[in-house]
Amino acid sequence: MRARMPVPDATSWDALLGPLAETPRENGTAALHQTASWLFETLRASGLEAQMVPFAAHPYGLRLAGVLALGAGLAYLSAVRARRAGLALLLAIAAPGLLLADLSWYVPVFGWIGAETEHHVLARLAPTGEPIQRLVFAAHYDTKTDLLDHVQRAPIELAGPPVAALMGAGAVALWVAPGARLARALAAAAGWGGALWGVGLFAALSAGAFVPGRSPGALDDGGACAVLVRLAERLAGEEPPGRTELEILLLAAEEVGVQGSWVYAEQRFSGPPELPTFVVNLEGIGASLDLGVAGSERFTLASYRPDPRIVDLLAAVHRERTGRELARPSWGGATDARSFLAHGVPAATVFSREPGVRFPRGLHSARDSRARLDEAALEETVAFLAAVVRAADANPLPSAP
Q1: Are 46 and 8 in contact (CB under 8 A)?
Q2: What residues does 292 pair with on adjacent strands?
Q3: Cβ atoms within 10 Å, residue 227
Q4: pTM higher than 0.85, yes or no?
Q5: In the structure, how many helices (H) and strands (E) does the chain have?
Q6: 122-168 pLDDT, tens per residue?
Q7: Helix axes 30-45, 223-236, angle to 10 degrees
Q8: Residue 17, Cα to own-chain centre: how many angstroms?
Q9: Gap between the Cα atoms of 347 and 95, Å rounded
């Protein structure tokens, strides 16, 4: 048995949730950098090897995307009303294309404005023997404040592709048959549709900058980060796994288009990993003891299913500990897991279900406060993840689905 360094007592929930569930940590602010340094020092004090991983972040990309959408929508309406078919067609093609490039393909079309260096925080625990696999537990520590919550902005996001198609059709109709009544009617509908969509995207992406009460990000995603710090402390005080290398990965820039994990996955997994790697991402942890796995990870024009090997592992441990099946809803979201899946790294997102609600409301607002976290649920999630580590080490995940 390998000798272990003395490990301090577990950090109290009060000490963890103060920085992670009571203080806004928005990208581009001093609070985000202070939280990164605090997480690094806390993880290093646990006895694990820890490091800060720098990357180029674009903190204002989403806000600027909303401004672009508003300007383009109003300009398109003006062009249609003036019967300037060429300008309308240019706007119908360029505006959605630029938004896709910046938000889905991570080309910093306008997000380069205000770019700065931010940090992920990574901790590692080596196994006692030769590693044959790597298990990564991830969560994001940054926060965001929006005018609209996830449910309110969903129709606006879903309307994007059909509205873009309508704008293109309206511009083409105006070009081909400028005098036809049907063409003018289609162009008018497209003009108002494009303008309303621009207003909607501005409200969803940009208007949060003017909301006075900032979100402390308790459920999204401070509770998950607190759980991973406690997990690191617990693992550091136990005999390490025999064949599984463990990593705790706390990510920045999730709330600005999931760009932080995209850059991390792109850089670290540009080639096949030296070990089979599996990522368990945590979102919305601490609402209750009722856990589930997100059914999909979405981009605007693509989606990914969670890796079945990870889902089966989580479900088996959950069943053994609770006697219940792990919830597997069909709906999903856009979490850090999608960055890993898009780069060929197996991943799945675990979440906790708030009692009495199907979808969490009030995230990205001052309502996402520490009062929404159940410390008993946080403690049980730590135990659940520790059991996942033991199960994965006892029965390594297959290298291919």
Answers
A1: yes
A2: 327, 351
A3: 28
A4: yes
A5: 12, 9
A6: 999 999 999 999 999 999 999 999 999 999 999 999 999 999 999 99
A7: 20
A8: 20
A9: 32
Where do the domains of the chain lie?
A: 13-56+118-145+213-394, 63-108+151-209
Lookup: tokens for 15: 């000490």
Distance CA 252, CA 316 (A): 30
Bridge partners of residue 248, in order along the sequence:
123, 137
SS3 398: coil
Give the CA distances from residue 144 to residues 210, 228, 234, in Å, rounded to whole numbers and listed in that order.
Answer: 12, 20, 30
Find where tokens 């406060």 sit: 369
Report the greatest alpha carbon distance in the chain: 85
% the chain with pLDDT above 90: 88
User: Do 291 and 327 form a contact (C-beta atoms < 8 A)?
Assistant: yes
| CA geometry: angle 239, 243, 246, nearest 5 deg | 70
Q: Are strands 347-352 and 291-293 parallel, antiparallel or unpaired?
A: antiparallel
Low-confidence ranges of the chain (pLDDT < 50): 1-8
CATH 3.90.180.10 fits 13-56+118-145+213-394, yes or no: no
Under DSSP, is residue 399 helix (H, G, I), strand (E, B) or coil?
coil
Ordered DSSP codes for 122-142:
EEEE--SS---EEEEEEEE--
Residue 301 to residues 94, 104, 183, 287, Cα–Cα distance (Å): 17, 8, 29, 31
Residues 6+ apart with CB under 8 A from 44: 50, 123
Q: Is there a contact between 91 and 173 (Cβ–Cβ < 8 Å)?
A: no
pLDDT at 401: 56
Give the burial class of 212: count Cβ atoms within 10 A of its Cβ; 0-12 exposed, 13-18 middle, 19 or more buried.
exposed
In this prediction, residue 300 carries a pLDDT of 86
> 181-205 vs 150-158: helix axis angle to the nearest 10?
150
pLDDT in tens, 95-134: 999 999 988 899 988 778 999 999 999 999 999 999 999 9
Nearest by Cα to 244 from 159, 135, 336, 93: 135
Report pLDDT for 142.
98
Task: Return the bridge partners of 137, or none.
Answer: 248, 280
**Please, are residues 206 and 70 in contact by the beta-carbon 8 Å criterion?**
yes
